[in-house]
Amino acid sequence: MGSESGKTQKKSLFIRITNKREFGILIPFLLIFFGTWMINPIFASIQNLMNITFQASFVFIVAIAMTYVLIIAGLDLSVGSTMGLAGVVSGLFILNMRDALPPAVLVIIGIFLGLLVGAAIGLFNGFMIAKVKIPTLIVTLSTMYVARGLCEFITRGNPVYPLPPEFNWLGQGKITFIDGWLGISTGGVIGLHVVTFIGLILAIIASIVLTNTTFGRAVFAIGGNRETARLSGLKVVPVTITVYIISGVAAALSGILTASRLGSALSNTGVGFEMNVIASVIIGGTSMFGGSGSVLGTLIGALMMTMVTNAMVMLRISPYLQKVVIGAIILLAVAVDQYNRKRSGLVN
């Protein structure tokens, strides 16, 4: 009797795991990983894996916030331009005030100003969408062009550099591990980038907020049915505005880290970046129709997007075909989402 009960519990646990959206994404992720590894063993080297996580971190930081946006059935096309503008504002302040303030204070204020730019753009987007009722696509498309125009106007297309080492450390610095740490042989000293640590910390916080707080439950409820959420007493407008502010701040942070990584702030930073972010979130299983999604799925999606690009380089696939492959993956992800919604009876 006890044996049968144990088997039933194990079976139900297995079913719960396999029914999760993340499990479906994990299978192609692992297939791509092991398939590329078998063809080119260098792909699975510690250094290359660190490189993949590093590159994915800049996308993932913004994708975390975009997960919230898509869950409420929204969209934010302005994240790429917000990245550029935030990086330029931070860079210009740091460059122009470097002789007036101590390095640490200079960097802190510069980062704060960049994040403030992102918060302002997010606040504007959220207010126009939630309060003025202008369609999401129109609002964020407009702010995308405005922010990009401001970048080009402020810089006249010139890079903002040189930026101080104290600032550049954020995007270039590593936290090092010694060979043999936890029994893992690495052939020497390796380092996990500071950007990756920032992304992981934000992921933990965002996941906890989304799954274990009143705000997170409100986000899901609004995405499921906005009118029902409003009639249930949820503060739809403040929650929506807050979600767009989070999106703006996350984009600004990624833009600042990108400027730090390059050692200069560029007016074209983040051009087309919004597509990579949205693709990562959709591939990660978040429905573009709202009401469902997870930070874990987004993490897998961001890693998968970066891994596919890296794998195609490793396999010497023509760069002209790389966008075709990514586009096909996005289309497949949306098709799978639509199929799941039909199976669940959410659409006809």
CATH topology: ABC transporter involved in vitamin B12 uptake, BtuC
Distance between the termini: 44 Å
What string gives the helices and strands in order? HHHHHHHEEHHHHHHH
Largest sheet: 2 strands, antiparallel
Mean pLDDT: 87
In the residues, how many domains can be counted?
A: 1
Total helices: the number is 14
- Spans of at least 5 consecutive residues with low confidence: 180-187
β-strand percent reads under 5%
C-alpha Rg, in Å?
21 Å
Q: Helix- and strand-based class?
A: mainly alpha
Strand order of the largest sheet: 1-2
- By DSSP, the count of extended strands is 2
Give a brief outline of the structure.
The chain contains 14 helices and two strands, in the order H-H-H-H-H-H-H-E-E-H-H-H-H-H-H-H. The chain is mostly helical.
Which descriptors apply to this entry?
mainly alpha, ABC transporter involved in vitamin B12 uptake, BtuC
Explain the overall architecture:
- The structure is a single chain.
- The chain is mainly α and 348 residues long.
- The protein has a single domain, classed as Orthogonal Bundle (ABC transporter involved in vitamin B12 uptake, BtuC), CATH 1.10.3470.
- Helices cover 74% and strands 2% of the residues.
- It contains 14 helices and two strands.
- Strands 1-2 form a two-stranded antiparallel sheet.
- It is globular.
- About 2% of the residues have low confidence.
